[in-house]
Please model this.
Amino acid sequence: MHDPAVLRSLHRDRFNAEPGIFVAPGRVNLIGEHTDYAEGFVMPAAIDFATLAGISPRTDGKIVVYSENYGAEAVFEASALPQAASKHWSDYPMGVVSILAGEGNAIPAFSLSLWGDVPLGSGLSSSAALEVVTALAVTSLIGVSYPGPVLARLCQRAENEFVGANCGIMDQFISANGAKDHALLLDCRDLSFKLAPIPADVALVIANTMVKHSVAGGEYTSRRAQVEEACAVIASHRPGVTFLRDATVEDLKLWGGEMSPNALKRARHVITENTRTVAAAEALICNNMAELGRLMAEAHVSYSQDFEASCVEADAMVALAQDLPGLIGARLTGGGFGGCTINLVERAHAAEFAEALAGRYADQIGIVPQIHICHASGGAHRLS
Ligand code: ADP
Ligand code: MG
Model:
């Protein structure tokens, strides 16, 4: 599916040089939404949509970045790296380069060609795939090697500090450290993780609602503020609580009355979601699919009603899946307000499930959705 030969030939034609080729996957989160910045748990899997990068050295002092997805090139001086974002796709790779430079790495001139099939802006983390593949390509060119978790943290910093998007660590972590046929339970506090095997007869069916409501950016910020408000109330009684990861539903019973109603609801989502995510990993490890499906259903209700991060289209996509053959569990995945749902489906029924869900969604919402039957893939690596 990701043939390095295609990118190699594109890179040769454009830059007249032989590239090293790298790949980094997108991801889908099975459960654990808006828990990463509360230092809680998430359980994503890397998927078989990915971004490829070809890299070769240059002798003219320039960094030339080309994206086949945009059919466009951006040019920089290796000796005068950009200090700030320019609201352009090249912010992602140049953010990574800038963070690597800040770590004391001398950045040489190079040509970087990029191509990816992670749908852009659909909640499958094309941005993290782009950052991680850039980091891998550039560090390999300069002969430096960072452990996967460190590489992920550098890429998150590129997105936070350079691009200016306030994301948690999940996306970059799974893109750098994913394992084929496994989901990964990540403790966002210390970045320790546990792999949970996805049975061969279970498919990851990703259903794109094809909508992304424009409130998403502002709402993400306000949700984080409400989560922090709730945490501050609990911490005023229990100083050991530094993030909602440390809080319990018992704390909410005791002190929820001191929070705004919205902060209370957001906190209830985050606290219960943490518990559900750990339980979901346990269910997956024990091959208890019924329990995993139940936890995913509960997670969707919590995300939609307490966190209020769903939308009509995503709620419909989840509801319409419920009685289709083979469904194990369905929920809205990613930052919210549109994007994709994740459906765990018995593989034998996956094609039929996808077709029926697409038909039902088109009939009810009037939009033809894209539905992808995915596998859990490995993390970023060198292809050739
Ligand atoms: P998501 O990560 O959910 O796909 P984001 O908005 O975080 O959505 O990131 C999408 C952005 O990442 C795109 O708008 C583009 O700027 C950048 N991007 C991702 N993949 C590529 C690519 N192959 N080439 C150039 N830019 C890309
Ligand atoms: Mg992103």
